[in-house]
Amino acid sequence: MKLGARADFGGQPFFTLACVGVDDEPDLERELTRLKALHRVQGVELKASNISGKPALVADLVEYLSRARIPVLIEAIDKRYLVGANIVEHHILPDVGIPDDPETMHFKRMFAEYLGVMMPDDVVSVFVGACLTPSKASALQSLRTLEAWLNSRPEAEEVAHGMVPGVVDSIEDCGVLEDDDDGYLRFLPRPDDSLKGKPYWMLPNQSCFTNIYARLNMKYRGNVSHLTLHHDETLAYQHILEGAKLALESLSEHAIPHHLRHADYRITQSAKLAFVQSDTCPGVQLADVLAGFVMRRMKSFSGQTTTPDVDGRRAFDGLMRLSDPASGLGINFVASGRLLRRMGVHWT
What are the E-state strand segments in the chain? Predict the structure, then answer.
């Protein structure tokens, strides 16, 4: 994850990934061709980048999805919220409880919500800096920066002060380590390596991909061997996604059951994964358009004001109507409740 000079993630504060279940590619290709002509879209293929000002096209696409009964799964991440969740996981509650413990999950969500909305740029920058140059000293600097900020919050902000004991414990545990002890890595997220050995931290595309895989596993009740996941060619991250898929499958029934309400990580069968050129795959083009639309929608509601957008609202409401969380379908937001309320998203 790239933070950017102004802690704004290089002007891309959100990440989205979409998956669509296409059985009739020729029919989809005809519909994409029709909509390109109707909405005067230039270019060989349909891309999110060349329809950013055409929400009516997306609305028409969503209507087609409904008619054709094409299942849609979308992951939508607020990167600042993701950083907050990683801070909770590694600075505040490291090695606490098990993934499915309801009380632990409640506190993790509450703390991540607070950090995602409230934490200042210096807390974000120092934490990401510790990831980029991991050491005992950088981990301690991040922990102490977080502690100082939390202690500076008004007493009425009980959530902030509720995080302090966990941070203090982490500072003490990290501080007693020998300088040559790599135990400090416990307080930082584990990176993935690029093909050239360069580490990447907190990759939203990896977490989005694995959660979509787990959601598909739930939708098909573990019977995923007949599925082929087509992903746009991405040489820099291809091996990371392949590795993440294999790691997820290796958990199998021997791991601690990691079953969420809308995803099942107990994968006992293996789906195929293929990397393709998007101009040859209508399904990948459709997924790109949907992901780009949701990302722009999140960005438009993250500011202080929003411009009324009838077609955008029609497209978004249509996507929400395609949701069936019990089957793993729809949009899974990893974002603050405040942003979701602005967007008109309701959840239980």
Answer: 14-20, 72-78, 192-193, 199-200, 228-232, 259-260, 263-264, 272-276, 330-334
